[in-house]
Amino acid sequence: MDLRSAFAAEPGRAARCTAAGAGWTLDWSKQLMQPGTMPLLLELARERQVPERFAAMLAGARMNWTEGRSVLHAALRAPGTASIAVDGHDVVPDVQHTLERMARFANALRSGAWTGSTGKRIRHVVNIGIGGSDLGPAMAYLALQPWRTPELDCRFVSNVDGNDLSIALAGLDPAQTLFIVCSKTFTTQETMENAASARAWLVSALGEAAVIRHFVAVSTNEARVRAFGIDPDHMFGFWDWVGGRYSMDSAIGLSTMVAIGPERFRELLQGFHAMDEHARTAPLESNLPVLMGMIGVWNSSVLGLPALAVLPYDQLLSRFPAYLQQLLMESNGKRVDDHGEPVSWRTCPVVFGEAGTNGQHAFYQMLHQGTTIVPIDFIAFRTAAHPLGRHRVLLNANAIAQAQAFAFGRTADEVRAEGTSEALVPHRTFPGNRPSSFLWADALTPASFGALVALYEHSTFVQGIVWGINSFDQWGVELGKSLAVEAIKGLEGTSTCTTHDASTEALLRTLRTTAT
Ligand code: G6Q
User: Fold this and answer.
1) Are the C-beta atoms of residues 129 and 195 closer than 8 Å to each other?
2) pLDDT under 70 in the chain at which residues?
3) 67, 133, 157, 192: which to mutate for ligand 1, most atoms within 8 A of CB?
């Protein structure tokens, strides 16, 4: 497959391979596909019943069958007039009720009506959570920076490394700090340790009675929230049909709502919903999540390409690749199918990325001339939220030029024609044929941002269905968690385990001395 020849042979290739929906346009003409390839991939999607399975998910089917759960993140952004039943219970009123409670709280915090225990206004919000209870809100906080209130800032603590909490708390006045403890289960080791240390920090300054004014929770576990000392009236719930990595538009997004306000948060939800509707109704040929999902299937399972680089050309999306790492890799990093049989095709690639143009001066060398071909998703916006006129031109010019360079390269003859010495010709030759998609929207707004996240959510779904795996469980994170319980005992000198391998034993012995 040679992209130069493909474009030369078909002048309408770019137009044929461009689709749009929910404010986003996808140009996938630089993928390594012949004109007949996508129709075959769409046939595969139909054969795998992608549209039917998508409809089943939206109707509350237990798509996450290894955990016996429905998968209804789409209900989080459904309009209040919708009706979506789980076991005969309409969940839409519950969602709307929670949104209203969140809005009341967010408004009180933003206006200063909610004060800390000393009567001082809250100026700092510290979100404590990890994985799905951190990556989405932390990423969204950066992405939606132009819409944030200047009245308060949000910080995010996730790592059990005390450096994370220490850095977040540095310089904060406890009397003006509010913690949002985000944990679906309220049992996650890292979050509970961070929350306990944050609580101790607060109590040492303001006393035990202050906890109730300085801690709120987002969780499904009321008993544990209460035991921590948080008033259940200050707990914002969600449901077991919301997976952690699909929860940034649930109450887990409380910090987002506090930062940008309830109205903008509604716009964000509308953007998500617009993409849900596009995914549900658009024909497969112009359905962005289906196209992107099948492009991923092609690159990973057919071409055998092991990675995906996500390159957002907007600094506001600097944490978007990290967010997608969880969304894609935790969802589709699976090796057995619905019947428990090993799949015989490559599933989720390694996902990484960096905001353009920074990546250009770092790892793009390998993307252009390395021995591993890495498919790329470029993401760009026509306009900028800032007034620095020419910057956007430079930024987007770089994005377009990179996509061009990856696709078409530079032949040895072209390099020679530039007068390059023969010894340098191989070094200055670019092979091209490095596949990429170019995804763009008019502007980064709460709505277009919501639609972008939903686009990746649904393309991940499409791939999971085609690969025949469960995109909604994450058993792969369990083993390390449970071994850590024994390792803690090993480091604290209370372990009675005698069956560790020699390496583990040596590490526990060595690090025990430095840990104490
Ligand atoms: C996401 C995962 C995982 C989860 C975290 C935090 O899909 O389930 O990343 O979000 O382990 O869990 P809690 O919210 O229960 O603390």
Assistant:
1) no
2) 514-516
3) 133
